[in-house]
Design goal:
heterotrimer; A mainly alpha (272); B mainly alpha (322); C alpha+beta (132); B: 322 residues; mainly alpha; Cytochrome Bc1 Complex, Chain C; 13 helices; 70% helix; 0% strand; C: 132 residues; alpha+beta; Rieske Iron-sulfur Protein; 2 domains; four-stranded antiparallel sheet; three-stranded antiparallel sheet; elongated
Chain lengths: 272, 322, 132
């Protein structure tokens, strides 16, 4: 009996560190390192397990059928474990018919847009090697079902372009405003608030765009872009106005100059 | 109506007597040197007015001070103008006062019976220097914070009196603010009135009945006053004062130079015993001047004076370039 | 008028002009534009349906109510600027100073007030309602 228990201890290994997983699954680990999830580990998605050495020398996972994020399970909900906001938005997109179905039978899951088309990736690699979200890859995936002339595709591409414009304007205005916060006579409060609001909206758009409700997304974008441009325009106007401040000095200086002249004349021409 | 006011207040007769006194003969070749004091007094008046306007919106707390100054400088209508006039007024005031001190020293107008005019003037200068110092602490930018810490350090045993606690607090800001808007103005108004009345009593040094003034002293003073105001306005409009970065109490202070007036002291602090000379020796010499220089020949005094002036100026330049 | 008096008049006129010009700028400085002296942002946190919340930054009081939609108002009663309260039972805003009442949309329903409550813009940050 004791020998059996001892044998169990000898042949079992806890796979509860990334290093333990990497002993066998080096390829997946490397794919992860090169992905956008490089800072995550195997444990983040798969959890821990125990590995048992079989008498014939092979190894098997103890809890394989119930392992998290394992093939055959619905990966959308696995992604949603961390990306909750995106998942909430995604559920109204019309792309998630019957999420109980396994991957491949859903209309579109996370990996369909985000995993890219790299043929070098292993079957599991599409999930491990997720690159940074590329608009080109995503639009490619859209074209898998939608015609480029269809309203949905056009709206989606337009939203992307508008988002790019918004991001560009945020950076440009931020750079342009550097050093202008310490100038006298002109307040930067409006532009600063508009920039902060625009950045918050841009971040919110990144999440809510998964819902594909193009009309309300466009409204959201406009609600930030409008005030941003307006505040920057009024900033420039205020600065111009300050540059014209001499018009206030001129009447005063003329009166003072005239007074000096009259004082001098008065002193020379008459006594008190 | 005017007669009613005149019989009650006697303003017209007061004006006539004042202007008569001011149109007395001037010393020969006096030029506009004699009007430097009036120019300085004009700036002081402008400082009081702009200072009052600034004080309406300023909050004397560690956190709120810089924000309130930012609101004044950037958001209030003409707030930038009030502040720029006040800052340029400070620079111009100190500059003109130094010239005034120099001019009167060279003219020898501190000699009997005018000793007290000179003494009052020197004390007045010290009070205004204190006013400048308390004022520059108020915006709580990085330089102001440094000035505050140095004040605490320089005061030595009087440090707790100046700062009020080991580290500056809102109470510290309050005492600097009260000093700047109440105590120092009270002191300099009293001293200025004394100084001016004494000048009126003893008349300008060197004026005799034979020398005639044309144009008169009043006209010269009025011109100097107006020219000063115009210069101040031009400076404020051409180079308005912007915002310095807010003081970050969590960072150790990067070395920054103090106001140019305090550069000699700043340099002297690095040179051991020289600090005592600048802090105490020079003021004592200044105050004692009328009592030290009584002899016929002024040559010795002038030479000694220029040596001291050159030494202090050299310290200042060293401080600026170190 | 002899030359002396003429010069006198000219002198006093130009001095008066020099004195008046800065004075013209004074009222603008003494009464700043709306919003300049506004205090900190007011964070009202989360407001559950049916709930009302009062927040303030100094003497600036705002009231937010989640009654079939979120609405934020300046809590100053438009009669004499006393802060109003939300009465949950009758779903109105009530001012205790003189008895003025406003409906859930800020419109006057009773009392010495004439103008509706001022509606305010707000932003939602991490689910919390923030008023500038």
């Amino acid at each position: 009996m004791i020998v059996l228990i001892a044998a169990l201890f000898l042949v079992q290994e806890r796979a509860d560190t990334p290093e333990a997983c990497m002993k066998c699954h080096t390829e997946q680990a490397n794919e992860l390192k090169g992905s956008v999830h490089a800072r995550e580990t195997c444990i983040s998605c798969h959890g821990t397990d125990e590995v048992v050495k079989n008498p014939r020398g092979t190894v098997s996972h103890r809890h394989l059928p119930t392992l998290k994020s394992w093939r055959g399970r619905n990966l959308v909900e696995d992604c949603a474990a961390c990306h909750t906001g995106i998942y909430d938005a995604y559920r109204v997109s019309g792309h998630t018919i019957d999420t109980k179905k396994p991957l491949g039978e859903m209309k579109k899951g996370c990996l369909d847009c985000h995993a890219g088309d790299d043929p070098e990736l292993t079957p599991g690699g599409r999930a491990h090697g997720i690159p940074k979200a590329s608009r080109g890859a995503i639009l490619n995936s859209c074209r898998g079902c939608h015609q480029t002339s269809s309203a949905d595709y056009v709206s989606g591409r337009q939203l992307y372009q508008d988002q790019d414009v918004l991001d560009g304007r945020i950076s440009a205005i931020e750079v342009a405003m550097r050093g202008r916060g310490s100038k006298p006579g002109v307040s930067v409060r409006e532009v600063t608030a508009a920039l902060a609001g625009a950045k918050r909206t841009a971040a919110e758009l990144q999440i809510r765009q998964h819902g594909l409700q193009f009309k309300s997304l466009e409204e959201l974008r406009a609600s930030a872009a409008g005030p941003l441009e307006a505040s920057y325009y009024s900033q420039s106007k205020k600065e111009k106005e300050f540059e014209g401040r001499w018009k206030y000095a001129v009447p005063f200086l003329m009166f003072v100059g005239a007074s000096i002249v009259f004082v001098q004349l008065r002193a020379r021409k008459g006594t008190t | 109506m005017i007669e009613w006011l005149e019989s009650r207040l006697g303003l017209r007769s007061a004006w006539t007597s004042a202007t008569t006194r001011l149109t007395r003969p001037l010393p020969a070749g006096a030029g506009y040197r004699v009007t430097l004091g009036v120019a300085a007094a004009t700036i002081l008046l402008v400082q009081c007015c702009t200072g009052a306007l600034l004080a309406l919106y300023y909050t004397p707390t560690l956190d709120g001070a810089h924000d309130s100054v930012a609101v004044i400088t950037q958001e209030l209508r003409f707030g930038w103008l009030a502040r720029s006039l006040h800052v340029w007024g400070m620079h111009l005031l100190v500059g003109i006062l130094l010239l005034h001190l120099l001019a009167e020293f060279v003219r020898g107008s501190y000699r009997a019976p005018r000793e007290m005019i000179w003494v009052a003037g020197v004390v007045l200068f010290a009070v205004i220097a204190a006013g400048v110092f308390t004022g520059q602490v108020l915006p709580m930018d990085q330089e102001a914070y440094q000035g505050l810490k140095i004040a605490g350090a320089t005061a030595g045993p009087l440090g707790p009196l100046v700062i009020g606690s080991r580290d500056p607090t809102d109470a510290t800001m309050m005492r600097f603010f009260v000093a700047h808007i109440l105590l120092i103005p009270a002191a300099f108004i009293g001293l200025l009135v004394l100084h001016a009345l004494l000048v009126g009593r003893h008349r300008l040094h060197g004026a005799t009945a034979e020398t005639s003034g044309d144009p008169t002293f009043l006209a010269r003073c009025a011109t100097a006053s107006l020219v000063t105001i115009a210069a101040l306005a031009i400076l404020a409009f051409a180079w308005p004062k912007g915002l310095e970065p807010k003081a970050d109490f969590t960072k150790s202070i990067a070395e920054s130079k103090p106001l140019w007036l305090f550069l000699p002291l700043y340099q002297a602090k690095k040179m051991g015993p020289v600090e005592w000379f600048v802090l105490f020796g020079v003021p004592l010499l200044l105050v004692a001047l009328p009592f030290l220089d009584r002899g016929q020949s002024r040559r010795l005094t002038l030479i000694a004076g220029f040596i001291v002036i050159t030494a202090v100026a050299a310290l200042g330049v060293m401080g600026a370039t170190s | 008028m002899d030359r002396r008096k003429f010069l006198d008049t000219l002198l006093w006129t130009s001095l008066a002009g020099a004195a008046v010009t800065p004075l013209a700028a004074l009222p603008g400085y003494l009464v700043p534009p709306e919003g300049v002296l506004r205090g900190k942002r007011i964070n009202l946190g989360r407001i559950a349906p049916g709930e009302a919340k009062v927040g303030n930054s100094g003497a600036r009081v705002v009231i937010a109510v989640n009654d079939g939609g979120l609405r934020v108002f300046d809590a100053a009663c438009t009669h004499d600027r006393c802060p109003v309260k939300w009465v949950r039972e009758t779903r109105i805003f009530r001012c205790d100073c003189h008895g003025a009442e406003f409906d859930a949309h800020g419109k006057v329903t009773k009392g010495p007030a004439k103008e509706p409550l001022a509606a305010l813009a707000y932003s939602e940050e991490n689910g919390e309602i923030v008023v500038d």
